[in-house]
Design brief:
Blueprint (H helix, E strand, L loop, with lengths): L17 H7 L25 H8 L5 H14 L4 H14 L2 E2 L3 H13 L7 H22 L1 E3 L6 E2 L9 H16 L3 H16 L5 H9 L3 H25 L12 H10 L3 H6 L4 H9 L15
Antiparallel strand pairs: 1-2, 2-3
Helix pairs in contact: 2-4, 3-8, 4-7, 4-13, 5-6, 7-8, 7-10, 8-9, 10-11
Length: 300
């Protein structure tokens, strides 16, 4: 028989503390629970063109708008669009912001605990994760966000990290190249159009001018020269891989123009190093000191 609230002499049950009640009604923690076999997928096809690499590395990019921008560069200037795309591609990877989400980390830990050879029971794995989640969340927050490629520095700064820095620095490099190619009148509009495509929003020319004033142009020029040299290196590598070398070709001959047309898209190189592999290799060849000033002093 249940105790009667009307009879004080009979036993009664006190209500549990609010904290205990909350724990009892607490829903399972929101993190992905995937078995080891579920994580084995057929690999996604990596982009095999410079244009595809740029669109893949800047997720807000509309591929059709990027294609139209390339057509504008070809029609309005004498600059090789492939060189510009190569520079933009490197910026996407170099200025990427990484930050571990607790939810993702917990999901990977659950998969590891329940997978072979540990084969921990699901209930026990969830208990272990629940016990360590608060400490893991604090550790993730203390670590901050990662600057640059996978071996980049971890930065702890208040406020939002500079997630759009790659698009703006790409604009600086493109602007520098276009101005050197005597396309000064077209440089700023084309650059603003590029940053608009990469960010997925409209960027006015004056907005780009304001950003350019904040940056020492000497740093941009040094980096632009290094990237141009790196692009020429990979142009040669594409030729070697295609067995299409000719040491007698000079810059002024029609044969050189034909040779560059065959290799400037880096098609063969991107077959050997698809996706972002090429960018990671190229970035290891470029001195980090050339990139550091373009993060801005606030993120040094």
């Amino acid at each position: 028989m249940l105790p009667s609230d009307g009879n004080p002499k009979k036993a009664s049950f006190s209500s549990p503390p609010a904290k205990i009640r909350a724990n009892k009604s607490h829903s399972p923690r929101n993190y992905p629970r995937r078995m080891s076999l579920d994580t084995i997928r057929s690999p996604e096809q990596e982009p095999s063109t410079l244009q595809g690499c740029v669109a893949h590395s800047f997720p807000d990019t509309n591929p059709k708008k990027l294609e139209r921008w390339i057509q504008r560069v070809t029609a309005e200037t004498s600059v090789e669009s492939e060189l510009l795309l190569f520079a933009v591609f490197l910026c996407a990877v170099q200025f990427r912001i990484g930050h571990s989400e607790v939810r993702t980390v917990l999901g990977k830990l659950w998969t590891w605990l329940t997978g072979h050879p540990r084969s921990m029971k699901h209930e026990l794995a969830e208990l272990v994760i629940e016990a360590i989640e608060p400490s893991l969340a604090k550790a993730t927050e203390r670590r901050g966000w990662q600057r640059g490629v996978s071996d980049g520095l971890y930065i702890r700064k208040k406020g939002a990290p500079p997630k759009n820095r790659g698009a703006w620095v790409a604009g600086l490099l493109v602007d520098d190249r276009l101005r050197k190619a005597e396309a000064k009148g077209r440089a700023a509009p084309l650059t603003a159009a590029l940053v608009s495509v990469l960010l997925g929003r409209q960027v006015e020319v004056n907005e780009f001018y304001r950003f350019r004033k904040l940056v020492e142009q000497g740093h941009v020029q040094k980096l632009a020269l290094e990237i141009t040299s790196e692009y020429e290196h990979w142009l040669q590598q594409d030729s070697i891989r295609a067995r299409d070398t000719n040491s007698t070709i000079t810059q002024s001959t029609p044969k050189c123009n034909s040779w560059r047309m065959r290799h400037k898209p880096l098609t063969v190189v991107l077959q050997d190093f698809p996706g972002e592999q090429l960018a990671h290799i190229a970035l290891k060849r470029i001195p980090p000191t050339l990139w550091d000033p373009l993060w801005g002093p606030e993120y040094a």
